[in-house]
UniProtKB/TrEMBL annotation:
NCBIfam families: PRK06183.1-3. Keywords: Oxidoreductase. This is Bifunctional 3-(3-hydroxy-phenyl)propionate/3-hydroxycinnamic acid hydroxylase. InterPro entries: FAD-bd (IPR002938), FAD/NAD-bd_sf (IPR036188), PheA/TfdB_FAD_monoxygenase (IPR050631). Its EC number is 1.14.13.127. GO terms for molecular function: 3-(3-hydroxyphenyl)propionate hydroxylase activity. It holds the Pfam family FAD_binding_3. PANTHER family: 3-(3-HYDROXY-PHENYL)PROPIONATE/3-HYDROXYCINNAMIC ACID HYDROXYLASE, FAD-BINDING MONOOXYGENASE. Residues 10-352 form the FAD-binding domain. It is an enzyme of class 1 (oxidoreductase).
Amino acid sequence: MEQEQPGAGPVLIVGAGPTGLTAALLLARLGVACTVLERRAGIHPLPRAVHLDDEGARILQRAGIGDAFAGISIPAAGLRLLDARLQPFAQFRHDRPAGVHGHPESNLFHQPDLERLLREELARRPLAQLREYTEVKDVSRPDGRPEGVLVHLTDARTGVREQLRAAAVLGCDGAGSTVRDAIGARLRDLRFTERWFVLDARSDRPLPTWGGVDQICDPRRAATFLPLPGDRYRWEFRMRPGETAEDMMRPERIATLTRRWGTRVGDLDVLRAGEYTFRARIADRWRRGRVLLLGDAAHLTPPFIGQGLGAGLRDAHNLAWKLAAVLEGGDEHTLLDSYQAERGPHAEAVIHGAVLVGHAMTGGQDLAAALRRPAAGVLLRIPGVRTAAQRGIATRYGPGPLVERRRHRRDLSGTPCPQPTVRVDGRQARLDEVLGDGYALLATGSAPRSVLVRARRLGARTLHLGPGPHVGDVTIEEGEELLAWLEHGRASAALLRPDRIVLATTPR
């Protein structure tokens, strides 16, 4: 018999992976009570995600674990494209200590370590809790409560069924999402499916590495190799027709696969070895009412550009402040409809980028593919081409109710504000620590009065940059990078949303 809990209830988040836990932390920071539901107990011990870019690290900072994440991750030196003899033919280095978001541009880590940090931070938040051994069976709309959601649960240990009323439900439950099925969403195939053998291992003897990611562009056996924190390493090998994971997991076969890195039988302590199917998929709908999809429940991307986890964190960052505003009485349709409208096209662009890179670097064994690989390397050596490729996966949202239409090609609307280190009241801090949790306005003394009035109406904190009349609540004493950013966008002020996306700019 099902037990039903009364009341509107908290926001329920289905799935305690990094996306679900980050969403809970962001909501709790905004004063929203939430509960994370997880059908298993404890941290999944095996490594899965291993890469996060600087924008993803910035979101973890917002969730409260930025410095802790830096302690469990290592900056990656960049990416190399190697031929079948492991000779580099293109290289893209990350030489700066921090990217535009204030963190290393590429970070390598062990996912169980990240989940531990997120759970520890969650335990410190009174408004957030985690319920393990709790399996979601269905999600529906309760009678007489059009704004609420009814979640049907089963205790994985006892089989006891329960119903919870929720203010909203976030489906962060992965590729086989129950929440996605409940809202009638379907995954659209973006025409990429490949079988790969993934190997995570420890080695007592350091293996040759330059500190970055190696992509082996070998038509006979495409592969990826990268170092992880401590003595861990990851290999990914594309599987051939007829090969099985059971055969490839044999110690002598693993030694054969990895011997080009100097390993022998018995050298590696295997942490995980198995077959994984890399897919490109995106859900046709991400929302029904107050039930929404995030992360792998909404989109699946091949790992070639390392954006799988980052896409889920961007979902959480985009949605959390909007949902908090809805629960405070904001316009539900404007706010929640904008979630898929903004995140969907960007997620699909990232997936297409990963597919194109996958095909160019590893795809096919015909003559055209053999020609395409070195050609891709030559093109990617050209700074302008490389910048264009990176721009294709950079966050940029199109015009809508929460992003004003761009006035010119360099307009900043729809893009993230950078996060330099600034000086305020004699102390240095990352910009996000100064902006606060709501809207914010970065303005020079030449900003028109109308934008200041608009900022006050939104409750925005105003930060003054540069010379001229003081126009802000806070003065940035060392804001050269922000001034240069505004100048590049031909703006005297930028109005920022709570997720640090530029809502609007005013001309210089």
